[in-house]
């Protein structure tokens, strides 16, 4: 960067002045195409009306922005599971935008959060074999399908080239939630629970914002634990610990 000048095109509503660091703003104002919106569109539909055909062809050729994800997921998921993942991704993007975070990041994590869920259990266990997972033996003995979230993160990284640790963690912890969850982790957890196609999706969460987000997460966590109890499922100790922290 020391040996280059940056040419920056202004969008409407965004200012900017030439600086000593070598940033040169073009005089013309260009149309307001948000790269975040482009990424979100491609993640959710494999296309975008906001970029030229040549750019879209390049994105598809180089498999950028998860443009092949939907095709792979359709082949490796039941129809219902794919519909759930797709709707969860749309809801995660909406919530992400409402609280001021990268909505394309939220969409990517939610779209892939169940990538391994419909694989045979032995395949899920195999994918997670090299991983150091807390209470792994206990999970396999009591509730082995909880490993699908870790396996989904492996698929996101190895199959789709995801390197963003926040996206991988959000996928990893959406089922076996743990203390220290970050904003994106919570968004995916909430979107997974309230996805419109699920019974829990009939619960109206209203408009989400920064001031009510943590309260929504705590309510969702409580409902998730109640769901586990009703079904007589084993509850991961980290989930219980997190609930106590949010009471």
Structural class by helix and strand composition: mainly alpha
For the record, the CATH architecture of the largest domain stands as Orthogonal Bundle
Low-confidence stretches: none
User: Can you give the mean pLDDT?
Assistant: 86
User: How many structural units, i.e. domains?
Assistant: 3
**What is the CATH C-level name of the largest domain?**
Mainly Alpha
Q: Kindly, what is the distance between the CA atoms of the first and last residues, rounded to a whole number of angstroms?
A: 48 Å
Plain-language structure description:
It contains twelve helices and two strands; from the N terminus they run ββαααααααααααα. By secondary structure, it is mainly alpha-helical. It has three domains: 1-32, no CATH class; 34-67, no CATH class; 77-202 and 211-246, Orthogonal Bundle (Hypothetical protein af1432), CATH 1.10.3210. Strands 1-2 form a two-stranded parallel sheet. Helix 4 (79-98) crosses helix 10. The longest helix has 20 residues, at 79-98.
């Amino acid at each position: 960067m020391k040996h280059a000048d940056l040419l920056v095109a202004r969008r409407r509503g965004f200012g900017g002045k030439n600086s000593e660091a070598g940033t040169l703003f073009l005089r013309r104002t260009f149309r307001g195409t948000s790269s975040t919106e482009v990424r979100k569109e491609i993640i959710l539909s494999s296309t975008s009306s906001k970029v030229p055909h040549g750019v879209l062809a390049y994105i598809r050729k180089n498999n950028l922005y998860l443009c092949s994800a939907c095709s792979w997921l359709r082949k490796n998921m039941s129809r219902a599971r794919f519909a759930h993942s797709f709707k969860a991704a749309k809801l995660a993007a909406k919530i992400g935008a409402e609280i001021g975070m990268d909505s394309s990041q939220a969409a990517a994590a939610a779209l892939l959060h169940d990538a391994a869920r419909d694989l045979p259990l032995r395949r899920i266990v195999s994918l997670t074999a090299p991983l150091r997972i807390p209470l792994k033996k206990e999970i396999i003995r009591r509730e082995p399908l909880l490993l699908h979230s870790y396996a989904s993160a492996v698929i996101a990284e190895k199959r789709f080239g995801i390197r963003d640790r926040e996206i991988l963690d959000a996928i990893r912890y959406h089922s076996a939630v743990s203390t220290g969850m970050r904003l994106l982790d919570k968004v995916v957890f909430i979107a997974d629970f309230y996805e419109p196609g699920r019974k829990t999706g009939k619960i109206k969460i209203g408009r989400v914002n920064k001031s009510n987000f943590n309260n929504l997460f705590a309510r969702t966590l409580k409902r998730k634990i109640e769901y586990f109890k009703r079904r007589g499922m084993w509850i991961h100790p980290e989930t219980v610990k997190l609930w106590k922290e949010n009471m």
